Amino acid sequence: MSPYAGLDEARTRLVMRDSWASRWTAAWQINGSEVVWPVRDLGSVPVLSSKPVRGFTWRTKQRHRPGLEFLVSTGRKHGFESLEERAALLALDFMTVVEVLPQPFALTFQHVDGHAGHTPDFLDGMGDGGHWLLGIRPAGLIGELDAVKFAASREAAAACGWRYSVITGWRPQVLSGLDALSAQRRPLTDQLGCQPALLAAAADGPVAFGELVQATRLPAVGRAHAVHLLWHRRLGFDLGRPLGDSSLVWPSGWKEFR
């Protein structure tokens, strides 16, 4: 993930005095109605009962590509408004996210030139019980006001104990690796006992991927199950490098190699 480094500079343009967390507001869609909370109370919002504050449609000649992405982690489809957002959803699924809410709320805040509004891209419920608010935009498309909006979102998230990140891009091998692994993320029937054989072959430490699949009764089928175990992190490898037969694979939690 490539984070955005300009938030601290943009923060200087925010007006954050005189109980700003009480004056800044966030509008949510709850049970079909708009409900507005001050930023200081965001931690008490019934997030799981909310709906996206903004819908999206498909039409010809639009400059972005919206769609729906199925997540194994949540068991349903989630909306995205660009290919960059789709990539983020894929990464979140790999991280075993618990919940994803696109366009969660409309933030209204004050900066040195007046008032502005912003809708973050995703609010994610993580496995540790925390929340992660995300803004997603390629670095070359982030303007001065965009940076101020991202900085305001970070302050709103911090006010209620949420994490916040702006994703500006990904290393190419990470996305290609996740895309390859995602092909086998759904449940697989293991009639040949490939998964126990793979786990046993990797139990003593790093082994080359090509050698690992040879430990199964049918290596061609064993490859699919090995990728399945990698996606669900029962096996591990270096996601920063392309996955190939020479890639080293180790059992989940094996720390000596690290």
Automatic annotation (TrEMBL):
InterPro entries: TnsA-like. This is TnsA-like heteromeric transposase endonuclease subunit. It comes from Streptomyces azureus.
